[in-house]
Amino acid sequence: MGPSTSEYIFIRTCIAFLHWIAPLSVAYSFVNLYLRPNRSHGFSIQDILIAWALLEAVFYLVIFLPLRRHLQRPALHPEHASREQRKQDFIQCMGSVPDLDEFLSKWFKNSPLSEIKRENIKEFLRWAFLSLDSVDEAYEDEVEEYVQLIEKTRQKEFEPGRGSARCIRLTFDKVELLHRSLFWYLCVWVVDCLTSLRLFYYGFSYHRLPLRRFFSVFPLRPHNLISPIKSPSDKLTYWHRPHHSKTDLPILFIHGIGIGLYPYVDFLAEVNKEIKGKDGKSVGVIAVEIMSISFRLAGQTLLKQEMCAEIDKILKAHQWDKCVLMSHSYGSVISTHLLYTPSIAKKIGPVLLIDPVTFLLHLPDVAYNFLHRKPTSSNEHRLSYFASNDIGVAHTLSRRFFWKESIIWKEDFGHRLVTVVLCGQDLIVDTQHVGEYLSGTDDDSWKTQEFKGKSLDILWFEKLDHAEVFDQRATRTKLLRALHEYCGEQVD
Q1: Collapsed DSSP state (helix, strand, coil) of residue 22
Q2: C or N terminus of the chain, fewer CB within 10 Å?
Q3: How confident is the model at residue 492 (pLDDT cuts 50, 70, 90)?
Q4: Residue 354: phi, psi to the nearest 5?
Q5: CA-to-CA distance for 103 and 106, rounded, in angstroms?
Q6: Cα-atom radius of gyration of the chain, to the nearest Å?
Q7: How many CB atoms within 10 Å of residue 450?
Q8: 182-487 maps to which CATH number?
Q9: Alpha-carbon distances, residue 152 vs 113, 156, 157 (angstroms)
Q10: φ/ψ of residue 206, rounded to 5
Q11: Considering the entire predicted model, what is its pTM?
Q12: Is residue 445 exposed (0-12), middle (13-18) or buried (19+ Cβ within 10 Å)?
């Protein structure tokens, strides 16, 4: 969506309409119940509005309000690494901060440095590296060591005491989420059905949940009831294209935050049509669905070990010993987890990361831009309302996402072929810094390099925003070329 005034008015109008459905429905239902107007015996539009408003009111009062309270429960943090490992992580992170003062200010929600004092820094470091919400004397000497290292780098000591600045602490902060109306979920249901019909048309088969879990996703999905193929995972659904090629690798795709696989259907259809093995046979595709980040009510996002175990079940069921890993946006978090799991990492060949959020994740950009920035432009309002404040998305990022186990460094890929796709107008990621880090240079020569398929490639799209690379055939073609090249890597 562009920056024009008409587009801004359109997106703000849509948000206002969707936001006010619930409170107006509650008010209308109470007024209607109190006044009890006489009803005609015939069926009218008014009867439909009354019934719909009552459903919206019940959904808000009986479902959303208790759910919002329930989702504020504390996060279950991963176990601590050793102190030596934590210090190495700290030094590595601090060594790749381009501007330390800006880094601190943004983690403190753009507070002035004068209000970020010693106790503020300690509070931030306790969360960031120790997952602590309060002082624990067993770790205070370590926290003090980190503070001194920062002061040494800044060549300036922090003022004693505590300033007014408040830092971002994702897993301790309140989960900021907004109600979604039944009307909104009806729209999601329509999009889901259309997406599924298109994927069926393009030759993909759907692997459903067990029938006993049919009601675990809302809006309900008809294909979870009628599909004859059950997923080997009891918790993940996916779309599958059989792999027949003996010469080329299949593709594992993990989507990002959004309305499921809808933005990727054209791309998946082109993969189906255009990518064939050297032997002329089809290259397989598994497109995993993560319902909790797809604007549905679907329970909690699986933690790292659970997610990896469920994906491994799927790979084993299809006897995929090696595949190309492709992911978009938040999907790069799951990709990182897979690469850090030895039993699965050995099955991963070349990697294609589109709009990844896991490089330089210690920088505040992703957390601040996605969850704490006050929106001004139409795109920022769209991101904030429809994505950041979605119930499942907000809970995932605030209670099920841990940056220390999700950050990836370029050396972690080993000898794999890797392509990273970055967009110059990305609303979420500071792609300039990510590109400089990956290329190892602070000039812009890496932005004009063509795909070579030799080690680490960067594809740069100067005028595109986050996820827009999937919108046009011309940009998707560049992704297809890299993917085709990677599928053609030698099969073990």
Answers
A1: helix
A2: C
A3: low
A4: -110, 125
A5: 5
A6: 24
A7: 8
A8: 3.40.50.1820
A9: 16, 7, 8
A10: -100, 130
A11: 0.95
A12: exposed
